[in-house]
Amino acid sequence: MIKLASQSPFANSHNGKDFDYFTPSSNPLPVGSYVKISTEDNCEYLGQIITQGIVEESGTKHAVGVSEDAHSLELDASSKRSKQKRVNYSRGMGNLLCRIEQDSYAPITAYDVFQDAKISRAPHTAISSYFLSTIAQNPPLEIGVIKFTDNQVRATLNPSDFYCHSFLCGQTRSGKTWALGVILEQLLLNTSLRIVVIDPNSDFIKLDQFHSIEDINKTRSENLCNEQYEAIRKRWDLIRTLIRIIKPKSQTMQSASNLSIRFSDLEKQKQEAILGLKPSEDPNETALFWLTVRNLVKRGCYSFADVYKCLERSARPPSIYKLLQRIKNQGILDWEIWCPAEGPSLIDELEGNWSCLIADIGVLDPPQNVIIAETILDFFWRKRDEFKRILIVMDEAHNICPQSPISILYSMAAESAVRIAAEGNKFGMHLFLASQSPEKVNFQVVASCPNLLLMRMNSVIELEDLKDAFSFVPESLLSQSLHFQQGEALLAFNSSSRTVLAKFEGRLTHTGGGDII
Ligand SMILES: Nc1ncnc2c1ncn2[C@@H]1O[C@H](COP(=O)(O)OP(=O)(O)O)[C@@H](O)[C@H]1O
Ligand SMILES: [Mg+2]
C-alpha cells in the first residue's frame, strides 16, 4: 500500500506511457475525456482516461491504496470501517498524450514517471491547443466538438488522416451519412483530394446546394458569424463548379444519362457474368457467344443493344436461343444502365475534370447498382498510375462489398474492393466505407482500414466484430459507443494512435431525401 486517499484525486505513472488514477466519484473523469496531471516537481501532462472502475466503500474512515501493480487497487485492510457513510471512488488507467510546456507540447518519454500527482479535468484551452498542435497540415478539418468539453473545444482532424482507408460504422440513424457529409465537405474545402462517392441512398445528390447560415447554425453549438459564413460560402461556390452529380436515366430530364455504360466498358468476364455464361461449366455456350459477337468485339465499342441485335440476327443455335431467352426473362435489355455505343458513358465522365463525383445509384435495382459500383472501382484501379490521390467513398458498403456475396456480380465487386483495400494506398487510392453491419462487409476490406469512425452501436456482440480488426482501440473506448447520442462518434486513427470522442456538427450542404434538420 502506498497511498491513503480519502480526499483528492491522484495519478501515478511508472512507464511514461500510461497512468493509473484514483478519484472520488463526486469528481468524475469520464472515459475518453482529457485530464491534466500536475506532479510535485511542477511537471504538467495532458492525458486521456481509458478505463474506469467503481470502488465502493462504507465507513467514515476509509482508505484506498494502489498496489505495486499499478492497476490493481485494493482497499486497505487496516482501515477501520463503519456502516455510517458510503463513498464511491473511481479508479482506472489512462494514456499520457504529451508534456505541457510553457507555450508548447513536448512528446512524453520513458523518464516521465510520477507518483501521487494531482489529476483534474483538462482546461479547454489546453485540449484545444493540443489538438491544433497535432495537425501537421493546415488548415485542419473542423468536424464538430470534442465530447466532455461542454461544447467549448472544436474537434479538428488532420486532412492526412484520410490518406488511408477508413471504416465508419454505427447503427441505423446514428448519423453515419450526415457525418460522412461533414467530412467530405471539409475535405473538399481544405484539400485538393479528389473524391468519388458511390451513393446508394441518393444522400449526397444535393452536395452542391449550400445551406443558409440559419440552417447551418441549427446544427452547431457555436454559431458561425456572417463573415465566417460568407467566407466558406464563397469557397464552396468555387468547389461547386467541380462537383458532378451523376444520376440514372429515370432521374434526369435528358434521355441520355451519364450514369450508364456501354457493354464494352465492362471486362469480358463481367459481360459473361451478366449474361449468365459460365465458361467453366459450359465452355461451348461461352465460346459460341464470343464467336457470334466477334465483329462487334473487333469494332471495340459496343452497347448492350448491339449485342442483343447481333444475337437475334444470328442463325440462333440452341444455346444462343437459350441465351436470348435468359436476357428476355431477366429484362437485361431494359436495364437503365445501358447507353448507346456512342455514349455518353460513366467512363467518359470519370475521365473528366472534377474534384467530387457522386454516382447516385439509389434508384437502380440490383444488380445494376452493383455493376455501376464495380465499374467505378475497376476504373480507378486500372488508372491507378494516372491519378495522384483519390478517396472512394461507399455508403452502405455491405451492399457493394459484402462478406457473403449473393451472386458472381457481387463477388466481383467485393474482389475489386479487396484489391484496392490491399494495394490501393501505395497508389494514393483510399477507401472510405460506411455500414451499419460490420459483420456483413467483406472482412478483408474492413481489416485493411487503419481508421475507425464508430458511432452508436446496438450491441456488445456487434462490437466483437470490430475488436479484432481495430485492436489498437482500447475495448473500454469501443464500448462507449453503446451510449452515444446521434452524431457522436469515436474517431480512431491508427497512424497517430489517437482516439477522440467527438460530436459531428455543422453540415454545410443539403442532404438528399428528406433533408431534415
Ligand atoms: N450530428 C447531427 N446533427 C444533426 N442532425 C443529425 C446529425 N446526425 C444525424 N442527423 C440527422 O439524423 C438523421 C439520421 O442520420 P443519418 O446520417 O442518415 O443516419 P445513418 O446514416 O446512420 O442511418 C438525419 O435526418 C440527419 O439529418
Ligand atoms: Mg446512412
Overall description:
This protein is α+β, with helices and mostly antiparallel strands. It has helices spanning 124-133, 176-190, 213-218, 226-240, 268-275, 283-292, 294-299, 304-313, 318-330, 346-350, 368-382, 408-423, 443-447, 460-469, 475-478; strands spanning 10-13, 18-24, 34-38, 44-49, 53-58, 64-66, 73-75, 86-100, 105-106, 114-121, 141-146, 154-157, 166-169, 194-199, 243-246, 356-360, 390-394, 429-435, 451-454, 488-493, 498-504. The strands form 3 sheets. Strands 12-11-21-20-19-13-18-17-14-16-15 form an 11-stranded mixed sheet. The longest helix has 16 residues, at 408-423. The radius of gyration is 28 Å and the shape is elongated. Mean pLDDT is 90; it is low at 1-5 and 60-82. Bound molecules: adenosine-5'-diphosphate (ADP) and magnesium ion. The site of magnesium ion has 3 residues, from helix 2.
Ligands: adenosine-5'-diphosphate, magnesium ion
Assembly level: single chain
Strand content: 15-25%
Shape field:
elongated
Structural class: alpha+beta
Helix fraction by DSSP (H/I, runs of at least 4): 25-40%
The number of helices is: 15
Number of strands: 21
Uncertain segments: 1-5, 60-82
| Cα separation of the termini | 55 Å
Q: Strand arrangement, largest sheet?
A: 12-11-21-20-19-13-18-17-14-16-15
Mean pLDDT, all residues: 90
Largest β-sheet summary: 11 strands, mixed
- What does the radius of gyration come to? 28 Å
